[in-house]
Amino acid sequence: MESRYAAQRSSAGLKIKPAEECRWDALSLGEVLLRFDPGEERITGARTFRVWEGGGEYNVVRGLRRCFGLRTSIVTALVDNHIGRLVEDLMLQGGVDLSHVRWVEFDGTGAAARNGIYFLERGSGVRRGLGVMDRGHTAISQMKPGEVDWDRLFGEEGVRWFHTGGIMAALSLDATQVVREAMTAAKRHRTMVSFDCNYRPSLWKSRGGRAGAIAVNRSLAHLADVFFGHEGDLADIVGNASMAPVWHTLESFSVMAHKVSVEFPNLKVIATSTRQVHSASSNGWGAFGYAQGAAFKGMEFEKIDILDRVGGGDSFASGVIFGLLSGKDLRWSLDCGVAHGALTMTTTGDSSRVVLAEVEQLMAGDSSATIR
């Protein structure tokens, strides 16, 4: 791998707290859902489903724990019933610490609060994937500012990296304020903060759609050190969505990222995965990154065969974060994110089911021949 990285080093200039000063390498704030997967069937015709846990912010720290071996925890909320305990059991298998999960009393029907679920068809060929959300009035959407002792978490326990994003911020007006409160506290304690826009139309339908999401993202961007965007997120945040379709060139990404960095000089790293959809089962996949005035292109796959697309972007983010936490340069970190995301999309479920050695093999260009 060394030859690819020797030509152009790209220090991100991040000042990350030493591991020995912190209990946690990474902490996230976000909702964890129960996913129902009908496999090869349609949702309407299925009679059996597999279940996994999943959630944009959670998937990142799960990948950091399960694939990269870091110490991770999550702040979330679940209703204390058998559904919530099923989600807990799935999360325990992922290895993320659950000491900061807030358990809400079950009222017997879910009228006061409930656990979120969603159904997802993976799609195949010309049939696109289909997700049906059932996450209204969930426990975490009702979390309010002041309910989490962030100063104890970031100060006394110590956290090197905090990750949250647009999914958590979209859940409710209160959730947006909880995100703001958490990011502010993290900055106060010199914790590195990353934010992933992760636009979900279903969550913003009653909150102004894309325009509502952009307004919230802009109001939070000044609190982040590292900014992840997918598709049109980065273009939208500086009001130039027309540039989104030509992001697959380094030059256009560099122009857009520079505009963002000028408006938000606090952002030390900007990173985006890129995807070219050939079909539901085949995508082009790559990434760009920007730090200290320079843009970089990550490794690129013109075509990868996809088993389950969900979680690819989250695994990209966890790979980038792992690289930066490990003191690697931005180019290495981008490649780690691309490789991790690509491998995640070859396995079922929302989260990474690969190990670091497999990521490094793909980064090195190893073939997909069977290991015997």
Summarize the structure.
With 372 residues, the protein is α/β, with parallel strands linked by helices.
Notable traits:
about 375 residues, alpha/beta, UDP-N-acetylmuramoyl-L-alanine:D-glutamate ligase, ten-stranded mixed beta sheet, 14 strands, about 35% helix, globular
Explain how this protein is built:
This protein is of the alpha/beta class and 372 residues long. The chain contains 13 helices and 14 strands. Helix 3 (82-94) links the parallel strand 4 (72-79) and strand 5 (101-104).
Q: Indicate the CATH topology.
A: UDP-N-acetylmuramoyl-L-alanine:D-glutamate ligase
Number of domains: 1
As residue ranges, the low-confidence spans are 6-10
For this structure, what is the CATH class? Alpha Beta
User: Rounded to an integer, what's the Rg over CA atoms?
Assistant: 19 Å
Main β-sheet: number of strands, strand sense, barrel status? 10 strands, mixed
List the helices and strands and how they pair.
Layout: H1 2-6, E1 24-29, E2 33-37, E3 50-54, H2 56-66, E4 72-79, H3 82-94, E5 101-104, E6 117-121, E7 130-134, H4 150-158, E8 159-165, H5 166-170, H6 173-188, E9 192-196, H7 201-204, H8 209-221, E10 226-230, H9 233-237, H10 250-263, E11 269-279, E12 282-291, E13 294-297, E14 301-305, H11 312-325, H12 330-344, H13 356-363
Parallel strand pairs: 1-4, 1-8, 2-6, 4-5, 8-9, 9-10, 10-11
Antiparallel strand pairs: 2-3, 6-7, 11-12, 12-13, 12-14
Helix pairs in contact: 2-11, 11-12, 12-13
